[in-house]
Amino acid sequence: MKLKIILLITTVVLTNACTSMSMPTANTIAGLPTVKFGNAAPLNGEYVLYFPAGSPIDTQVTFGGNLFIKDDTKKLSVIPKQDIYVYKDWLSFDKKSWFNDKEKLKLNLKLALPGYEHPQSGHLILRLDKTE
After folding, report:
1. What is the mean pLDDT of residues 113-117?
2. What is the DSSP secondary-structure string of 79-124?
3. What separation in angstroms does the CA of 50 have from each of 4, 10, 102, 120?
């Protein structure tokens, strides 16, 4: 069964708990190197992660455990319709105006595993929408 999943920088954008909440200046961010998703990040220092419009964002989903004879892993891919720049908890669509990611993104996660309350195929839905 192939899962349909919408994934857009979830790990990078929404789970960076160690980031400072004070907004960086535009000059600070403008002086940082920009790294395209999939390329190596600088070994030392900070950077802006760039997800270009039209380029796939791949991730793997694994379902398994010691309850099963066989685990399964699927590669899933989504394609952003516009450029996305990420610096820690900050997000931009033009690399000029920056916002806290929670101001501009809405995350909806649904998981239903087969069982008594859901006696059919399971599903995982991850939806990440831009808010206006």
Report:
1. 93
2. --SS-EEEETTEEESSSSS-EEHHHHEEEEEEEE-SSSSS-S--EE
3. 24, 14, 18, 39
Tens-digit pLDDT profile for residues 60-80: 999 999 999 999 999 999 999
CB 53 within 8 A of CB 82: yes
Domains of the chain by residue range: 10-130
CA proximity to 1, closest of 63, 57, 59, 58: 63
DSSP annotation string for 44-84: SS--EEEE-TTS-EEEEEEE--TT-S--EEEEEEE--SS-E
Give the 3-state secondary structure of residue 130.
strand
More confident residue, 5 or 81: 81
Facing residues of 63 across strands?
A: 72
Residue type, 58: D
Give CA–CA dist 86/9, Å, rounded.
9
